[in-house]
Amino acid sequence: MITWQDVKKSMEALGIKDGDSVIIHSSFKSLGETEHGADTVVKGLQAAVGESGTVVFPTLCQKDWDHVYENWTLDAESDVGYLTNYFRKLPEALRSDQATHSVAAIGKQAEYITSTHGETGKRYGIFGDTPFSSDSPWEKMYELNTKVILLGVEAVKTTFRHYAEYCYMERLLKIAEKSPEYETLKAQVWCYDRWREKGVWVHINSEYIQKMLEAEGNVHYGKCGDASLIMFSSKDFVDMCTKMLESQNYDALFQAEWACYKQSKVWIEKVLAIGQ
Q1: How does 14-39 read in b/e, with b if 16+ C-beta sit within 10 Å?
Q2: Stretch 32-38: mean pLDDT, rounded?
Q3: CA-angle at 98, arms to 97 and 99, nearest 5°
Q4: Can you tell me the distance from the alpha carbon of 200 to that of 269, in angstroms, rounded to the nearest whole number?
Q5: For residues 117 and 99, what is the distance between their CA atoms, to the nearest angstrom?
Q6: Longest Cα–Cα distance in the chain
């Protein structure tokens, strides 16, 4: 039977300390039996970061993908696990106002993290232009060096990979602006408005990034009940994504099953040539 004290100790063993901000990607059932259900997990996390820390959960909405923007409300169900829905409904939780990649937060930085999401600094891309904008929780959490905790799930669940993808594509599109073919090049990018057409995108393999971070000693492992724990900093993760993108080692970095892999490599190389 897992208690909140057990959750706190497991987080501290990972390296979580007072004042940290943490985002948790989770499988509640992976823990096994908990003393008071989801409340045990939340209480333990809050105790680990203390009053000066912040706990964040992703509250993504993607099952009704074709209509997600038109049906969005702040009370929309999260698609990414039981804990995320429990957490977002807590009276003290604040949630960012964005249809596909919102987060909910409790703690010192909660208002700052969730207060804006896609109002300014929009970035063109696969999920729409607001999810990973420069005023989004994802950019704020990156700046805060929020620690990413994978509770019973693998690295593929790391949403920060999409933040890194958006930032890199933004840089490529700025280079493409120098070309008379800019509108054509932009039209080839995979975007929400043409979701079913599929197009160019830098789809990062999170497991590969985890291995690169592990080689540098920047991944920490642990256990909580029956659940495996993985922890790394958001800044380390995103910076490694950027480093690997800039190395152009696409065969290792991109997911092999990705339908537009070859098309995207050609597009990227063409854009980079414009900037030379």
Answers
A1: bebeeebbbbbbbbbeebeebeeebe
A2: 94
A3: 130
A4: 12
A5: 10
A6: 64
Amino acid, res. 81: G
CB 153 within 8 A of CB 112: no
Q: Tens of pLDDT along 167-194?
A: 999 999 999 999 999 999 999 999 999 8
pLDDT one-digit tens code per residue, 86-131: 999 999 999 999 999 999 999 999 999 999 999 999 999 999 999 9
**Strands of 227-233's sheet, edge to edge?**
94-95, 103-107, 54-58, 21-26, 147-151, 227-233, 220-224
Contacts of 158 (CB under 8 A, 6+ apart): 25, 148, 150, 206, 209, 237
Return the pLDDT at 252: 78
Average pLDDT of every residue of the chain: 95
Whether 172 and 271 have beta carbons less than 8 Å apart is answered as yes
Report the relative pairing of strands 54-58 and 21-26 from DSSP bridges. Answer: parallel
Residues of the chain by 3-state class (helix, strand, coil), percent to 5: 45, 15, 40
Residue 276 reports pLDDT greater than 90:
no
Helix 206-215 to helix 234-247 angle, to the nearest 10 degrees? 100
Please, are residues 101 and 80 in contact by the beta-carbon 8 Å criterion?
Answer: no
**Residue 257: count of CB within 10 angstroms of its CB:** 7
C-alpha to C-alpha distance for 186 and 23, rounded to whole angstroms: 32
The pLDDT of residue 190: 94
DSSP code of residue 157: G
Rounded to two decimals, the pTM is: 0.96
